[in-house]
């Protein structure tokens, strides 16, 4: 069973779900670039929530995942994690 099917939950992430997920699974990402400021999660969620339903579909969450992947890539190459995208 995947985590979204546990306890009868639907296949969407709320802001609270996304916040808990990133805090537990991506602390290195959140520690950089002033991402630990109070409004960062709300801003990130708002950008990802394309259809403005207040919940993220898997497709919408891939936008968040892409940021995590980019951050990991920059970290692995010793690049500026907070600068503009050069690719």
From TrEMBL:
This is EF-hand domain-containing protein. SUPFAM superfamilies: EF-hand. Keywords: Calcium, Metal-binding. One of its GO terms (molecular function) is calcium ion binding. InterPro entries: EF-hand-dom_pair (IPR011992), EF_Hand_1_Ca_BS (IPR018247), EF_hand_dom (IPR002048). Coiled coil: none annotated. The keyword Calcium applies. Residues 36-71 form the EF-hand domain.
């Amino acid at each position: 069973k995947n985590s979204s099917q546990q306890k009868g939950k639907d296949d969407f992430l709320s802001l609270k779900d996304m916040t808990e997920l990133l805090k537990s699974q991506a602390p290195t990402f959140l520690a950089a670039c002033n991402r630990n400021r109070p409004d960062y999660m709300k801003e990130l969620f708002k950008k990802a929530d394309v259809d403005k339903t207040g919940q993220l579909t898997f497709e919408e969450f891939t936008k968040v995942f892409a940021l995590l992947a980019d951050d990991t890539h920059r970290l692995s190459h010793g690049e500026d994690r907070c600068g503009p995208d050069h690719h």
